[in-house]
UniProtKB/TrEMBL annotation:
Pfam families attached to this UniProt entry: Abhydrolase_2
InterPro entries: AB_hydrolase_fold, LYPA1-2/EST-like, PLipase/COase/thioEstase
Domain Phospholipase/carboxylesterase/thioesterase residue range list: 56-174
GO terms of molecular function: hydrolase activity
Superkingdom of origin organism: Archaea
Keyword entries, A-Z: Hydrolase
This protein's name: Phospholipase/carboxylesterase
Family designation: Belongs to the AB hydrolase superfamily. AB hydrolase 2 family.
Naturally occurring in which organism (per UniProt): Halalkalicoccus paucihalophilus
């Protein structure tokens, strides 16, 4: 198992980082929640949230990021400024979905929940991989990059979405939140 402060591969910074688990074991899981934390936190730390909303039959998965961050620069910087960190982080979400699938839980029964950097990743992952998910919960996060991209295509119809931010949040201000809402809404109505 990897040290969260170590980067094993320059091309895939999050390679070898653990996937922390809690809740139902794979053979008893009816649903999965993938939890993605914010900068400077840890996978184990975000798993403490389940004490507030744990449900029987739910497996909780929390990928760990190298150096306790999903990407080194602002989420509003050009994508290339956060590579290869960004692609590596999205791959960790794909791998968590594969763990859910191996437990017999499809994306339709898998909810992605992210806070701050983790919320940005969850949003971006769903926008880039549109389909029906069990849900998307984004707390103080938004789509990544300096502007909304037109290349998002597909449908996330029937995916319940909760976007939460504060009017005085310096990282994800209401204007950014509105931009994300419009983009995700476009994926819902297609």
């Amino acid at each position: 198992m990897s040290d969260p402060f170590t980067v094993e591969s320059r091309d895939d910074p999050h390679q070898g980082q653990p996937l922390e688990t809690a809740g139902a074991p794979p053979e008893a899981a009816d649903a999965v929640v993938i939890l993605l934390y914010g900068r400077s936190s840890t996978a184990k730390n975000i798993l403490r949230l389940i004490d507030e909303f744990h449900h029987h039959g739910v497996m909780y998965l929390a990928p760990q990021a190298a150096r306790r961050m999903w990407y080194p620069r602002s989420g509003y910087a050009p994508f290339e400024d956060n590579e290869p960190w960004f692609s590596s982080a999205l791959d960790r979400i794909s791998k968590a979905l594969n763990v859910a699938a191996a437990a017999g839980v499809p994306p339709e029964r898998t909810l992605l929940l992210g806070f701050s950097q983790g919320g940005c990743l969850a949003s971006e992952f769903v926008a880039r991989n549109p389909r029906r998910y069990g849900g998307l919960v984004v707390l103080s996060g938004s789509l990544l990059g300096p502007e909304v991209r037109e290349e998002y295509a597909g449908s996330i119809d029937d995916t319940p979405i909760f976007l939460g931010c504060s009017s005085d949040d310096p990282i994800s201000p209401p204007l950014v939140f509105t931009r994300q809402h419009a983009c995700l809404n476009g994926l819902v109505v297609r």
